[in-house]
Amino acid sequence: MKKLLTEWLKPAAWGTLILMCAMSMGHAAENTQNTSDVPQPNVTAIKGGKCVENTEFMRKNHMKLLMHHRITAVHKGDNQLADKYSIINCVNCHANPKDHSVVGPGDFCQSCHAYAAVKITCFECHSSKPSATPSPFHATTSMVGATGKDPHATMVHYLAYHEHPQNLNSGLSAKDLAGVTQ
Amino acid sequence: MQIEFRELDGKSNAYYGLLGGWVALVLIGLFSAFQMEHYGHIITGMNNQVVWGMPHVFAVFMIVAASGALNVASIATVFGKKFYKPLAPLSALLAIALLAGGLTVLMLDLGRSDRVIVAMTHYNFKSVFAWNVFLYTGFFGFAALYIWTMMDRNVNRFNKPAGFGAFIWRLMLTTGTGSIFGFLVARQAYDSALLAPMFIVMSFSYGLAVYLLVLMLAYRWSKRLIGDVVITRLKNLLGVFVAAVMYFVLVYHLTNLYFTKQHDFERFILLDGGIYTLLFWGGQIVLGSVLPLILLYAPATRKSVSATFAACLLVVLGGLAQMYVTIIGGQAFPLQLFPGMVETSSFYDGVIHPYTPSLVEILLGLGGVGVVGAIVVFAVKLFRFLPESLDNSVIDAHHNVH
Amino acid sequence: MSDIDNYRRRFMTGVVGVAATVSLPAGLLFWQTAEGKSNDDTGLASAKTRWGMLIDTTKCATGCDACVRGCDKENGLSGNTSPTSPQWIRKVQVSNPSTGNGFSLPMMCQHCEEPPCVDVCPTGASFKRVDGIVLVDRHICIGCRYCMMACPYKARSFIHHPETDQLAEVPRGQGCVESCTFCVQRIDEGKTTTACQDACNAEGHQAIYFGDLKDPNSEISKQLAQYSSQEVLPNLDLHTGVRYQGI
Fold first, then answer.
1. 3-state DSSP call for residue B309?
2. Which chains touch A (3 or more CB pairs under 8 A)?
3. What is the CATH code for B13-200+207-229+342-399?
4. Angle between helices B195-221 and B159-182 (to 10 degrees)
5. What is the ipTM of this complex?
6. Which of helix, strand or coil describes residue B248?
7. pLDDT at C26 over 80
8. How confident is the model at residue A28 (pLDDT cuts 50, 70, 90)?
9. Distance of residue A161 Cα from the nearest chain C Cα, in angstroms
10. Is A126 an 8 Å CB contact of chain C?
11. Which domains does chain C have, with CATH numbers?
């Protein structure tokens, strides 16, 4: 048993200690984000004006809308082009005219995801380029969307579907919106 | 005289060399998996015709052997044979290690192994695969519980129920593994309830062969004593299992030979299937069954420890050959859309599907073997899995057998 | 019993306990959401429809692969025919070795009523929509290829390398399994023809009918009522959505 202590547990304990130190330093660094010398993402939204929802809402919830759309589109047969929350319509609006993409360096999706260090796996399968067929939906002309849903109906549907009511608008602050240019 | 269990000292360079070797093999396997992840399965020999390849040969072998490795412990606990009691802890350890190795390979071969967690969060309860996810997890749990009741005197009174549970569970597990193939109505090689019991008997044979190999090597390398009483007992049992596998193989092929619609497939495996015919007769039957039986029972070799060692090695190789013939041979033979008709298409209908394993998939499979080795070598140093001595005098004094 | 033994036991108990408490409810939770719920919104797939296809092999021309090219174009497939290339639809030439008689037909996912691929899929990624279309949800496909082992029609392909330049309407990517979708992107947009059917008609063969099997007035239902047709491998009793005349 003594052997166990000296040969395995001690190194393991040291390793844990070092890891915890590193993590607490990372945590400390996180707390300094309100200061101005921390770089912010430089996001260019391409199409001006309002998105399908307001910017704060989209920043916080776009992944939930996409998750919802993913289920309705694949399993329920929702029209991909007409659903204003569909990934096709995201790309159609937000693709950078220079490279016709949302995932090149500095493009809409990539700039923020690179900043947040969150891998975007969507475009391993989905096209990152605008669709060839023009979409019947246009965000700036039709705020209600082609399917006739009011702005929060889909979210209500989403909540009912997933049965996990959440306060979707909570927790946003000015720092969440820093760096957004339209 | 009480049989004492003791950890390996494990301070020699040879020990660290051995552990390092296994870990290196694991790293090579992980590197291969990363390559497959990055470039896609295009760098393997697998294609849209032969969809399961070399990784599955290794993985299924290890998963089948895992449940078989637990048998030595089951004989001790479930069937109350005291003789096997000192052999039980290693048996349960090996079961866990083999299953871990097999599952590692299986998971790393997935097209989207980054999403393997989905297999834990989304279940289709009609899928044999999904049942197996539960069976694998439960097997780890039962084997671990079993080891605990063996090693800790406080809970030793639960040894019997734990062993019983593990035994029942291992039978279910191998039934599940066999049914992955047995429940496939589409393919002529599978589509048979016989595969489930056949896989169980195969597991007895493969698992015991691996167990004997590990036992002999562990005692030789740790310079502990192991007497011929133990080895003779186990190798006689192995011989019975090898013969039983042959029996099942015989029945499987006889059934097919009796059904006219299966004649083409049987001709492919038994006569003109090229590598599959060679591996069936040369690998599975001659090297993996007949030769081991001769080595285990022939008067000239039956008392030789090296002959037993060689027989175990051959059973393992024969098992891999059997897996190759079963898994890959079964897919190489084309599906019949219109029985009795000749079919041709751009999607290779009606022709034997070629398959050549690439280096990455072989290395991935060997990486799984590395996982087994690393777990065993590490664990026998950490815990008291191995009796200090299995010499004849110790065994005799303890059990009064002969 | 040393302190270390005690410590070790507590640690192991803790680890196992935490693992069990985390994994069990999580599994149940996701299972529940994966079940899905019925939806009566208009514009969505409906159980009142069953999409099906009828192929008249007497009109299907040997050597013609217009349907295959039409499918490749619609769905963004390369059209390569290497052993690792996906092929959603293929032309199969069938001949009887004892009589010499033969015919040609397109073979693709048969959209079974009881699909073996759906039965075997461990995650439920392989699924049948309420309107009878058998699909792969690529978001939860882990690439195990068990469905490819189970499909009696060899209808499924695995994507062996990273894909680029996918069509917006047809997402496809490395490591997942795919097959004919009955051009589901068209159906969801309200169209009622498939690309292979359009291509066949454009060639003037008109060997492919596509429509709602549950609607007695659809062209396909009328054809099926009037002429005898058969599914491939009828002994499997899978009630395929694709039927053939003249086989």
1. helix
2. B, C
3. 1.20.1630
4. 130
5. 0.92
6. helix
7. no
8. low
9. 7
10. yes
11. 51-245 (3.30.70.20)
Task: Give A5's contacts in chain C (Cβ within 8 Å).
Answer: 4
* Confidence tier at A13 by pLDDT (50, 70, 90): confident
- The residue of chain A with its CA nearest to that of B38 is A124
| HEC readout, chain A | CHHHHHHHHHHHHHHHHHHHHHHHHHHHHHHHHHCCCCCCCCEECCCCCCCCCCHHHHHHHHHHHHHHHHHHHHHHCCCCCCCCCCHHHHHHHHCECCCCECCCCCCHHHHHHHHHCCCCCHHHHCCCCCCCCCCCCCCCCCCCCCCCCCCCHHHHHHHHHHCCCCCCCCCCCHHHHCCEEC
Q: Which residue has the higher pLDDT, B256 or C15?
A: B256
**B184–C177: do the CB atoms touch at under 8 Å?**
no
- A11–chain B Cβ distance below 8 A for any pair: no
Interface residue of C57, C77, C78, C94 to substitute, partner B, most B CBs within 10 Å: C94
- Smallest Cβ–Cβ distance between C44 and the set A4, A78, A133 belongs to A78
Q: What is the chain B residue with the closest CA to C29?
A: B121
Residue C63 CA to residue B167 CA, distance in Å, equals: 58
Which residue is closest to C171 within chain A, CA to CA? A126
Q: Which residues contact B9 (CB under 8 A, 6 or more apart)?
A: B15, B222, B381
Q: Output the average pLDDT for chain C.
A: 88
Residue C168 and residue A1: Cβ atoms within 8 Å? no
Identify the pLDDT of residue A106. 85
Bridge partners (DSSP) listed for residue C95 = B342, C102
